[in-house]
Amino acid sequence: MQQGRARCQLAALLLGLMGLLTGGSEFQHHRYEDMVGALFAVHSECPYITRIYSIGRSVEGRHLYVLEFSDNPGIHEALEPEFKYVGNMHGNEVLGRELLIRFSQFLCEEYRAGNHRIMRLIHDTRIHILPSMNPDGYEVAARQGPEFNGYLVGRGNFREIDLNRNFPDLNALMYYYEKTKGRNHHLPLPDNWEQQVEPETLAIIKWMQNYNFVLSANLHGGAVVANYPFDKSRDPRFRGRTTYSATADDKIFRKLARTYSYAHGWMHKGWNCGDFFDEGITNGASWYSLSKGMQDFNYLYTNCFEITLELSCDKFPPAAALPREWLANREALVSYLEEVHHGIKGMVYDENNNPITNVEISVAGVNHDVTSGVDGDYFRLLLPGTYKVTASSSGYIPSTSTVTVGPAEATQVCFTLMDTLTTCKSVKTHGNKNTIIESVFA
């Protein structure tokens, strides 16, 4: 652990020196037009590694703009993981918004300056940055400003709906399936779900459906802690009390949360904002239980692992505090992003070397599967160790491999699945009748 902390401190120092050399950017709060201008300015400075796109509009019609970083913007490259940062879900929690704007500028600056660490990240990762999920709420909060902003003013969207209580509740279904040995991933959405969510939530869900995200973080404010799933308690009798609600990937989530906490300036120290969180991390339900949250939805509906980062005691810190907050979070934002490259990844083919989509990748002993994307590639975050991994899909014979995962880059494991119709059957013809003899595979 001490060596890990030393590496984080050294990396932070090197990034700090690079930031001094490249001059940095002025710190300020960005209203909607200013934010959009800042994103387009980054794209103008780094046009060959960035793309700006909108995933939808807010209630008041503001675009939810995403800035993408990649060596091939707009294209998913096989075996290159998709990563996202989401800020400003609660409109009056503004630090995440400003950090992601500055992080976008930083990635562009460091890439142009030849920072090998940043260049490698952009070449090997498709990075999506959404600085503001709730631009309408932000404008309400910003009209009051840092000095007079209330705890709840601007928290919700224009209709005053809390977007982190607005996703379809898949936890209840998951907890039922755990008892009945039902499905453990990609749970179905309820009927008419699109009419039950806000436009901003709808845009996020459609975004998740269109991109095979592997890892994500959602930036909040009002505390300083890295919060990991599940947010919702399993037992309704304890919804009003704190009770640990672990996912099947609890150890991985704890590691992800610690990665950010220990790379942060002071999160890992535990005592912040009058609260104590050991190592600066917490299970969501162990802190307080909430339903219809975004990080649980990511895990239960998609392949994506997401944690919630509470980054400041002050929900709307003054502009003068932003440089210090940036220095505290800069290395953590980079280190957490790098976690997307751990575990295993690979391709799934049929016997004719055609990629197969929607193949279930299961790990023995872990009750949560992921699936291959449209290009046949899959990504599975895992801690170092040896695992038995199985790829299976309807109409194919499952394939299993024993895989050893190290602490560095993801181990590549490819699977070839044999079609049961062509490999498991032979046909004998007797007159006008066909007798099909099936081979039996263990």
Automatic annotation (TrEMBL):
<dbReference type="InterPro" id="IPR000834">
    <property type="entry name" value="Peptidase_M14"/>
</dbReference>
<dbReference type="Pfam" id="PF00246">
    <property type="entry name" value="Peptidase_M14"/>
</dbReference>
<protein>
    <recommendedName>
        <fullName>Carboxypeptidase E</fullName>
        <ecNumber>3.4.17.10</ecNumber>
    </recommendedName>
</protein>
<dbReference type="InterPro" id="IPR050753">
    <property type="entry name" value="Peptidase_M14_domain"/>
</dbReference>
<dbReference type="GO" id="GO:0004181">
    <property type="term" value="F:metallocarboxypeptidase activity"/>
</dbReference>
<dbReference type="GO" id="GO:0006518">
    <property type="term" value="P:peptide metabolic process"/>
</dbReference>
<feature type="signal peptide">
    <location>
        <begin position="1"/>
        <end position="24"/>
    </location>
</feature>
<keyword id="KW-0378">Hydrolase</keyword>
<dbReference type="GO" id="GO:0023052">
    <property type="term" value="P:signaling"/>
</dbReference>
<keyword id="KW-0862">Zinc</keyword>
<keyword id="KW-0472">Membrane</keyword>
<keyword id="KW-0964">Secreted</keyword>
<dbReference type="InterPro" id="IPR057247">
    <property type="entry name" value="CARBOXYPEPT_ZN_2"/>
</dbReference>
<comment type="similarity">
    <text>Belongs to the peptidase M14 family.</text>
</comment>
<dbReference type="InterPro" id="IPR057246">
    <property type="entry name" value="CARBOXYPEPT_ZN_1"/>
</dbReference>
<keyword id="KW-0732">Signal</keyword>
<keyword id="KW-0479">Metal-binding</keyword>
<keyword id="KW-0121">Carboxypeptidase</keyword>
<feature type="active site" description="Proton donor/acceptor">
    <location>
        <position position="310"/>
    </location>
</feature>
<dbReference type="GO" id="GO:0030658">
    <property type="term" value="C:transport vesicle membrane"/>
</dbReference>
<feature type="domain" description="Peptidase M14">
    <location>
        <begin position="28"/>
        <end position="340"/>
    </location>
</feature>
<dbReference type="GO" id="GO:0008104">
    <property type="term" value="P:intracellular protein localization"/>
</dbReference>
<dbReference type="GO" id="GO:0007154">
    <property type="term" value="P:cell communication"/>
</dbReference>
<dbReference type="GO" id="GO:0005615">
    <property type="term" value="C:extracellular space"/>
</dbReference>
<keyword id="KW-0325">Glycoprotein</keyword>
<dbReference type="Pfam" id="PF13620">
    <property type="entry name" value="CarboxypepD_reg"/>
</dbReference>
<keyword id="KW-0482">Metalloprotease</keyword>
<keyword id="KW-0968">Cytoplasmic vesicle</keyword>
<dbReference type="InterPro" id="IPR008969">
    <property type="entry name" value="CarboxyPept-like_regulatory"/>
</dbReference>
<dbReference type="GO" id="GO:0008270">
    <property type="term" value="F:zinc ion binding"/>
</dbReference>
<dbReference type="GO" id="GO:0016485">
    <property type="term" value="P:protein processing"/>
</dbReference>
<keyword id="KW-0645">Protease</keyword>
